[in-house]
Design the sequence.
């Protein structure tokens, strides 16, 4: 394959675009089309996962491939393989993912007569103008990302002598880096969402593509990676949350938990009695019970103790 200065610049630009790729279908389709033009493909398709959802993009094809993939999609197995009800397509997908990152000609996976007789070829690839294919793939946590170039004839100039494979091999490092980075980003965001759901503090996502712009009066803002990713806003725990922590840790009754909340709010005995609708002497008895159960000697120590407890609030307090 001849690599003149102009072609080298095109290769560099495509590599740059791959390295800065986002998960938007339109962006992927644009890069797919430009790669297909460079390898003189008649058609092309891209398959990848976005937040665990299988997606497909095509260039210069009909609807046959997308329709067939949706009709034969059979879920994901425990090994992270995307499965198909078409046994021939399923076998190729499993083999390709097991082989890992690379540029592969269709002959790597099956003989030509097997391919021509397979349902996926007869019903999808051949009608879509992808009679012969070569592509690059990278393994993801679930499934894989694939850019496949299609050719109507085996004697297409880019297929003869492996010219398309050479060009795709030069793009492969950027392709692998991009889709594996997108995959890690999606999985990291899933873990972040799970951590927020399990946290017993008030944590929200602010700004960027993952959250709104509502300010929470947070005392701590942690920036997420990326210039437009937004930030995590963490608000200080209020007295109710702290009292519930103490209740979960030390088995406080409902009334003792109310008393602890008043103490943590800094209320006097008189003000606590007014809030709870009981007499001051009863409040004093509840205060003594709270301090005895928690082992705290004074209100300030109770506050420090509550902030050190990390248990989630109990589902039901003792009467």
Sequence:
């Amino acid at each position: 394959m001849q690599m003149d200065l102009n072609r080298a610049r095109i290769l560099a630009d495509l590599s740059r675009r791959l390295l800065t790729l986002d998960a938007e279908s339109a962006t992927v389709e644009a890069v797919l089309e430009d790669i297909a033009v460079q390898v003189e493909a008649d058609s092309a398709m891209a398959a990848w996962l976005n937040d665990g959802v299988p997606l497909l993009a095509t260039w210069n094809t009909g609807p046959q491939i997308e329709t067939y993939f949706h009709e034969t999609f059979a879920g994901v197995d425990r090994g992270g393989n995307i499965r198909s009800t078409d046994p021939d397509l399923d076998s190729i997908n499993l083999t390709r993912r097991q082989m890992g990152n690379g540029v592969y000609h269709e002959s790597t996976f099956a003989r030509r007569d097997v391919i021509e007789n397979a349902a996926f070829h007869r019903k999808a690839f051949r009608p879509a103008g992808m009679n012969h294919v070569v592509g690059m793939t990278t393994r993801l946590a679930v499934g894989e990302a694939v850019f496949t170039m299609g050719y109507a004839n085996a004697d297409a100039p880019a297929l003869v002598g492996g010219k398309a494979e050479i060009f795709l091999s030069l793009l492969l490092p950027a392709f692998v880096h991009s889709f594996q980075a997108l995959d890690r980003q999606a999985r990291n965001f899933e873990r972040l969402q799970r951590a927020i759901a399990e946290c017993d503090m008030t944590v929200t996502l602010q700004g960027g593509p993952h959250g709104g712009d509502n300010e929470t009066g947070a005392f701590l803002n942690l920036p997420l990676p990326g210039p437009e990713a937004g930030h995590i806003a963490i608000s200080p725990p209020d007295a109710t949350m702290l009292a519930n922590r103490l209740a979960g840790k030390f088995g406080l009754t409902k009334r003792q938990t109310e008393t602890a909340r008043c103490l943590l709010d800094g209320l006097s005995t008189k003000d606590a009695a007014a809030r709870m609708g009981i007499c001051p002497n009863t409040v004093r008895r509840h205060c003594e019970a709270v301090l005895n159960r928690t082992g705290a000697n004074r209100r300030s120590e109770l506050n420090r103790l509550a902030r050190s407890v990390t248990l989630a609030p109990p589902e039901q307090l003792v009467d």
In short: Confidence is low (pLDDT under 50) at residues 311-319. Residues 200-235 form one domain. The first helix runs from residue 5 to 19. The beta strands are 43-50, 53-59, 73-76, 82-84, 102-105, 132-139, 144-151, 202-206, 220-223, 231-235.
